[in-house]
């Protein structure tokens, strides 16, 4: 902040006048001398600040190589990353608007090292200043909602340092999801492979001449092989869906026809489980925009899950409501229900409320993750309501498309 020196001279002059007029001469003389030194010091500081700002602009302009008519500070304020400019004492002399919002308690004049006491940041800025070269470090700000930053320190002229905080929290989250996905997929594939290896060794050894045991083990091996096949199919489906950023084929799909087809296809499976599928469709034919195969998989995953996990209820209701702008599909089972704490995580890959029950029903743990991605591609959404002991409702909302 620049000081208005003319106003200060006027104020101090008035104070000196009244001091001479009303105070003893000795005291008035002391006050006048003190005022002189205060004015001299403030004048010096003001000139230093002007020169400092001018030098800072010049240094940064030369470093960034910007034209003379460009305001560097306005440019830095527009950056999406948090930026700090430190002087040779590591005091913060400038922070852009992003930094002010991200680090709300940081203000100009604070010492950077005192404010950011993290060893990795302190060591990085010192290395940058000592070696006169850029330094990059990772920093997890636990006080700021576990925000993960990549921090860049750049040495400027005059002992100044440029400090840039780039938020990489979302990137890190996605990397962790990818790592967890690979680890979970490897684990899911390893389990049936281990079983197959064990049964093969048994058939070749102790059960070599035991026909009954061999047939029993071969049946189990077939189940394990089918489990692997289902898992690989779901992994490929999920991978295919994740590679898409939007609908690559703009089909107009008959919603009623596709849903009826899925219900008819799953009716034999439902009968084997002792479950009755009850479909309630509106008289009006509804159309949505998307891929027919994806919608078939979406409906199939939801209805099949309801049959498996709501089996004890003996019935699954499938109802459709036309809301003019969108269509609402509800798949309702009368099973044991799902605890509230599990609901937000149901669409995570390999997340299971009950791993043993899931394996009993030959689930891969990817069904609802696939549903989530299909809905994302079709601009739809999934809403889950469940009460323990009463069953679950899975609602799908999709935008309707006018059909001539």
Automatic annotation (TrEMBL):
Source lineage: Bacteria, Pseudomonadati, Pseudomonadota, Alphaproteobacteria, Hyphomicrobiales
Gene3D superfamilies (alphabetical): 1.10.287.130, Histidine kinase-like ATPase, C-terminal domain, PAS domain
Location in the cell: Cell membrane
Protein name as catalogued: histidine kinase
Coiled-coil annotated residue ranges, if any: none
Keyword Transport: yes
EC number(s) on file: 2.7.13.3
Originating species: Bartonella tamiae Th239
Entry keywords, A to Z: ATP-binding, Cell membrane, Kinase, Membrane, Nucleotide-binding, Phosphoprotein, Transferase, Transmembrane, Transmembrane helix, Transport, Two-component regulatory system
PROSITE patterns from the UniProt entry: HIS_KIN (PS50109)
Single Gene Ontology MF annotation: phosphorelay sensor kinase activity
């Amino acid at each position: 902040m620049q000081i208005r020196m003319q106003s200060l001279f006027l104020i101090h002059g008035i104070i000196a006048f009244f001091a001479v007029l009303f105070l003893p001469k000795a005291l008035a003389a002391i006050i006048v001398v003190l005022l002189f030194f205060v004015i001299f010091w403030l004048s010096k500081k003001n000139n230093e600040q002007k020169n400092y700002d001018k030098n800072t602009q010049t240094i940064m302009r030369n470093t960034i190589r910007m034209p003379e008519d460009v305001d560097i500070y306005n440019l830095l304020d527009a950056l999406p990353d948090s930026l700090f400019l430190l002087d040779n004492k590591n005091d913060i002399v400038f922070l852009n608007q992003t930094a002010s919002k991200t680090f709300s308690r940081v203000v100009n004049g604070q010492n950077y090292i005192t404010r950011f006491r993290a060893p990795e940041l302190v060591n990085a800025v010192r290395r940058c200043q000592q070696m006169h070269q850029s330094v990059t470090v990772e920093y997890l700000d636990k006080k700021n909602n576990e925000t993960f930053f990549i921090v860049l320190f750049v040495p400027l002229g005059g002992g100044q340092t440029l400090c840039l905080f780039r938020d990489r929290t979302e990137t890190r989250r996605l990397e962790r999801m990818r790592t967890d996905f690979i680890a979970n997929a490897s684990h899911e594939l390893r389990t049936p492979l281990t079983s197959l290896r064990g049964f093969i060794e048994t058939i070749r050894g102790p059960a070599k001449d035991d026909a009954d045991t061999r047939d029993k083990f071969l049946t189990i091996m077939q189940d394990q092989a089918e489990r692997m096949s289902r898992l690989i199919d779901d992994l490929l489906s999920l991978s295919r869906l994740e590679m898409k950023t939007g609908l690559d084929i703009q089909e107009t799909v008959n919603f009623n026809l596709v849903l009826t087809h899925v219900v008819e296809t799953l009716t034999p499976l439902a009968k084997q489980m002792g479950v009755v599928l009850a479909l309630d469709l509106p008289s009006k034919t509804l159309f949505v925009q998307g891929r027919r195969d994806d919608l078939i998989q979406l409906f199939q995953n939801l209805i099949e899950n309801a049959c498996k996990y709501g089996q004890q209820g003996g019935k699954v209701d499938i109802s459709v409501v036309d809301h003019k702008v969108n269509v609402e599909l509800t798949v309702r089972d009368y099973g044991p229900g799902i605890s509230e704490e599990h609901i937000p995580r149901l669409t995570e890959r390999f997340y299971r409320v009950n791993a043993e029950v899931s394996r009993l029903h030959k689930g891969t743990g990817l069904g609802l993750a696939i549903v989530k991605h299909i809905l994302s591609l079709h601009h739809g959404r999934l809403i889950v309501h469940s009460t323990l002991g009463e069953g679950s409702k899975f609602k799908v909302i999709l935008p309707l498309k006018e059909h001539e």
